[in-house]
Design a protein that fits this description.
Blueprint lengths: L1 H17 L2 H34 L1 H31 L21 H30 L10 H16 L2 H9 L3 H29 L8 H27 L21 H31 L2 H35 L1 H6 L6 H44 L4 H30 L2 H28 L3 H27 L12 H20 L5 H26 L1 H12 L8
Helix pairs in contact: 2-3, 2-7, 3-4, 3-5, 3-8, 3-9, 3-10, 4-5, 4-6, 5-8, 7-8, 9-14, 10-12, 10-13, 10-15, 12-13, 12-16, 12-17, 12-18, 13-15, 14-15, 16-17
């Protein structure tokens, strides 16, 4: 049976080797897309269950402080080396599978990859130890709760165990084994969900009162289960892919005159580590502010709202941003790079095509923003109050988050264009400005939390300021890039704007008129009214925005073009 498995694996590897690397990568990307859908769905369902069992405060501390600790250790330890290894030609070092009785050592190229992948394990151990003592020495929300410090220690251990996957992970990337990565990640996510829920239920049944002493420890045990599961899964699957023992992936060997790690990989890794520091500040700025200045209850509210709010952000805005980035890279960036070698007519066609895509996406984002601002801010808090029994803090934060989402979506596709057409020197200048905007955001967020006591709504408002500054910068850049461009072309039809504004006025008036009704009756009546007004607004879009609908269809079909002058 083992010989049959080896024979099947050998046949599969022959097929993979026969395909171009790029073709295999695009073919395997579907597994990663499916994995992302599974991970987000499983995490969302688990979070909903955990909030009701563990409480909002414990959920907030785990989602903000613990996850910030985990992401800092993992991101700063491995991101630079991962990006450096992506620049290395690893396909030539992938050996043909050998029989089970002919185990050998890694090839020279794979050994260099293994040596480099061992660095994050050692770096992560040092970084994790430093961060643990910083966390223990600093002010700690819920530090009086049971198992706070043991939970921190378990998170540190889980982070280091997850870093031990790096040699196997980079080898799987070198062999373009996307399906294997999806399998391992799916198993690990499932184990994390099971670990959290089982530990919470155990603490619930061990206590007679309402306090669950294991509510923080549950998140740590879930992360430990995730780390162990992903390490074991990679070791199991890679043992069938490699023609040498898995344990050899953890032994460094000097293979050339450069030493254990080539100078090219080392210099690239140092460069990418510097970029990782800036990127980590940009992506985790809100968590840093919340972890230092927010209370446990404010953390819980922010984590809960982010969990709900990430649904439209991931489902609507992220696909639009990724698709627009691909379109701009093929049109606008090509026109910018090749203007000297293209005919004048071809250059104008490329630029006009990018301009049409930009206007179409802008108008679409404006319409989505209108709906979120009018119907989201007015009706999502009512729905949240109905589901969460009039939780005022969550309702207010959700209302502000609905106003924040249009800023996020509009900034996403504008930055996609800017990053696609900007030169290398311009990108450095852009990143400096992004860092400046992030510092402004952090200062505003600290003021909102520390001085004005606005809680989670203040953090979201500071995020809106950050996005607004980035949008203004992108607007200035785009206006200079195009010879003749007006953002007014992105505005929806006045009739649609009028319909949405009327829906908002009617909703506010009816809220006052129906305020005398019982709470549940009032909420259900308002939601029914919102549904009717939403249908009317969609009808106005169908009537007055037919040109936009045709443009979106043409964009999906790849046939959106404009006439050249």
């Amino acid at each position: 049976m083992s010989q049959d498995r080896s024979k099947r694996n050998g046949n599969i590897d022959k097929v993979v080797d026969a395909q171009p690397a790029s073709q295999s990568a695009f073919a395997g990307a579907q597994y990663l897309m499916g994995l992302q859908i599974f991970v987000r769905l499983a995490t969302f369902i688990m979070n909903i269950l955990v909030i009701y069992i563990a409480g909002r405060k414990a959920f907030g501390v785990a989602s903000i402080r613990f996850e910030l600790l985990l992401s800092t250790v993992l991101f700063l330890s491995r991101e630079g080396m991962r990006n450096a290894l992506l620049r290395v030609d690893t396909t030539s070092g992938a050996d043909k599978p050998a029989s089970n009785y002919a185990r050998k050592r890694p090839s020279g190229q794979e050994q260099r990859i293994i040596n480099a992948a061992l660095v994050p394990i050692a770096a992560g151990m040092l970084l994790a130890g430093c961060l643990y003592w910083i966390y223990v020495g600093g002010s700690a929300p819920m530090s009086e709760a049971s198992y706070y410090r043991p939970s921190l220690a378990i998170y540190i251990l889980a982070a280091w165990i997850e870093l031990c996957v790096e040699p196997l992970y980079v080898l799987s990337r070198a062999r373009i084994l996307f399906k294997l990565q999806a399998k391992c990640e799916a198993v690990a996510v499932s184990c994390r969900c099971i670990g959290v829920v089982v530990t919470l239920l155990l603490g619930y049944y061990l206590t007679t009162d309402q306090t669950n002493p294991l509510r923080l420890l549950a998140f740590a045990m879930g992360q430990l289960a995730y780390a162990l599961a992903i390490l074991i899964s990679y070791a199991w699957h890679m043992s069938n892919e490699l023609d040498y023992s898995v344990w050899q992936c953890y032994i460094p060997h000097k293979r050339d005159t450069d030493g254990y790690i080539s100078n090219a990989i080392g210099s690239l890794a140092v460069t990418f580590v510097g970029q990782s520091l800036v990127k980590h500040l940009l992506t985790q700025g809100d968590s840093m502010v919340m972890a230092r200045f927010a209370t446990a209850d404010e953390m819980g509210t922010f984590a809960l709202v982010s969990n709900y709010g990430s649904i439209p952000a991931r489902v609507l805005f992220l696909p639009l941003e990724e698709a627009s980035r691909a379109v701009f890279s093929k049109t606008a960036a090509a026109a910018t790079a090749d203007k000297s070698s293209m005919s004048s007519k071809d250059a104008r066609a490329q630029i006009n095509n990018a301009r049409s895509v930009l206007i179409t996406l802008g108008k679409l984002q404006f319409l989505l923003g209108l709906f979120l601002i009018v119907f989201g801010t007015l009706y999502v808090p009512i729905l949240a109050a109905l589901v969460r029994h009039n939780d005022v803090a969550v309702s207010q934060a959700l209302a502000v988050y609905c106003a924040y989402l249009p800023f996020m979506g509009f900034n996403g596709f504008l930055e996609a264009f800017v990053h696609s057409v900007a030169t290398k020197s311009q990108l450095i200048f852009i990143n400096i400005w992004m860092a400046v905007f992030t510092v402004v955001y952090m200062l505003a967020a600290i003021e909102a939390l520390y001085r004005f006591k606005l809680g989670s709504a203040g953090i979201i408002g500071a995020n809106m300021l950050n996005m607004a500054l980035r949008i203004i910068y992108c607007k200035i850049y785009i206006s200079k890039w195009f010879a003749n461009f007006s953002f007014r072309e992105m505005l929806p039809h006045p009739a649609v704007v009028g319909m949405c504004a009327s829906a908002g006025v009617i909703s506010i008036a009816m809220r006052t008129a129906l305020s005398h009704l019982p709470s549940t009756t009032f909420q259900l009546s308002m939601l029914a009214l919102g549904g009717g007004l939403g249908v009317a607004a969609l009808a106005s879009i169908w009537i007055y925005e037919q040109s936009l609908i045709h443009s979106v269809r043409a964009l999906r079909a790849g046939t959106l073009h404009t006439k050249t002058d």
